[in-house]
Design brief:
Blueprint: H1 3-19, H2 22-29, H3 31-46, H4 52-81, H5 86-134
Helix pairs in contact: 1-2, 1-4, 2-4, 3-4, 4-5
Length: 135
């Protein structure tokens, strides 16, 4: 109840500092409800409750959602500054910027999750077993 609202406020403050524009900061922040819906749906689907671990997951999820928004809005602003029409700037930004970012983010999330679930426990056991042998 404290971590999520505080995270959102800090994110907004950083966005406003970055863009110096209230409208664009709110626009990027508008990605968060979409991310929140996905996270809540996943928790409900798995029968899990909101916990400290889940809250940390939401903070990370918010970071990804904000990153996507920052990448898109920054590129759209650059195209608009070059005289590109709004609709074309939106379409070009989505295809030129978001697809590569989304691809990498999905790849990292899947790979890091799988490696954390399977490799980290094995390495932990190996490290702890070596430590116990030395004692």
């Amino acid at each position: 109840m404290v971590v999520l609202p505080l995270s959102i406020f800090i994110i907004f403050a950083l966005l406003y500092t970055t863009f110096g524009n209230f409208r664009h900061s709110l626009l990027i922040l508008a990605n968060l409800p979409f991310a929140l819906i996905g996270g809540i749906f996943a928790l409900l689907h798995r029968g899990l409750h909101l916990s400290v671990s889940a809250s940390i997951g939401f903070v990370a999820l918010f970071g990804v959602a904000v990153l996507n928004g920052v990448v898109l809005v920054t590129h759209m602003n650059q195209l608009r500054a070059q005289g590109v029409a709004v609709h074309l700037a939106v379409v070009r930004s989505a295809s030129e910027r978001l697809r590569p970012v989304a691809t990498v983010v999905i790849g990292v999330l899947v790979a890091s999750t799988l490696l954390t679930l399977f490799i980290l426990p094995v390495v932990y056991q190996w490290v702890e077993a070596r430590r116990e042998k030395k004692m």
